Amino acid sequence: MKILFTICARKGSKGLKNKNISEFLGQPICYYTLSAYDLFKKENGNLDCDLAVNTDSEELIKQINKTNHKYTHIKRTPELAGDTTGKVDVIIDTYKKMNKEYDYVIDLDLTSPLRTSKDIKGTLEALLNNKEADLSFSVTTSRRSPYFNQVKKQENGYYTPIEYTGATARQQVPKVYDMNASIYVYKPEFLLKGVKIFDGRCCAYEMKDTAILDIDNPEDKELMEILAEYFYKTDNDMAKVKNNIKNIKVN
């Protein structure tokens, strides 16, 4: 089985300045993703994995070059570097420029440092086990529900439920999940259609709920570092990712 792993990260950021090249607990944040990828390859030696990094950030490339990873740098084009550019478009560009056929494409977001090798495998297996699906992605159980305790502001200034059901307990409404933007697995034939994710048949893998998994602003980063310190002491899979960083650094 041939798998293309993609890391798509442009320079700059409005929510958290330079978040893709920032440090997380004293290490470049990209090292946590690279470490999880490295562990996945070691634990699944029967898979043929390539890594492609699509970026316009020279600093990110410098950070990655200080690891022992073999990868292909796909230079981010200006038309794909805008604030409103969809990530799927960048992944498609990466896939096409690799000029090679793959069975699956797995995208890993750099701002999800608490992802583990087990999570990558679980999201891949969710798609492998559902032959009719087009893609899978990672989720966590949502702390709020549009059917129960999420509201929207109406034009008259009053707040009403997003979806009113009349339920008096959360157990009475459908279970909902948060897409945590950590892992996406695509079948290439669906990816290359260039359509939106939910135009396809989606399945999901439920990751451990750590309260927050995707860093997008300074408050996210501050909270995540506090949580990470705890989980690196209590979760063996997360600790393996942190401890493996020393094995991927070359200087």
Descriptive notes:
The protein has 251 residues and is of the alpha/beta class. Helices cover 31% and strands 22% of the residues. It has seven helices and eleven strands. It has helices spanning 30-43, 58-64, 87-98, 117-128, 188-191, 218-234, 236-248; strands spanning 2-8, 23-24, 27-28, 48-55, 72-75, 104-108, 135-141, 151-153, 159-161, 177-186, 202-206. Strands 5-4-1-6-10-7-11 form a seven-stranded mixed sheet, sandwiched between helices. Helix 1 crosses helix 4, helix 1 (30-43) crosses helix 7 (236-248) and helix 6 crosses helix 7. The longest helix is centred in the last third of the chain and has 17 residues, at 218-234. The two termini are 32 Å apart. The mean pLDDT is 93.
Key features?
251 residues; alpha/beta; seven-stranded mixed β-sheet; two-stranded antiparallel ribbon; 31% helix; globular
Q: Which parts are unreliable, with pLDDT below 50 for 5 consecutive residues or more?
A: none
Shape: globular
Figure out the total of helices: 7
Strand content: 15-25%
**Main sheet makeup:** 7 strands, mixed
Average of the residue pLDDT scores: 93
Distance between the termini: 32 Å
Please give the share of residues in helix: 25-40%
- Sheet with the most strands: spatial strand order: 5-4-1-6-10-7-11
Using the CA coordinates, give the radius of gyration.
Answer: 19 Å
How many strand units? 11
Order of helices and strands: EEEHEHEHEHEEEEHEHH
How does the helix and strand content classify structurally? alpha/beta
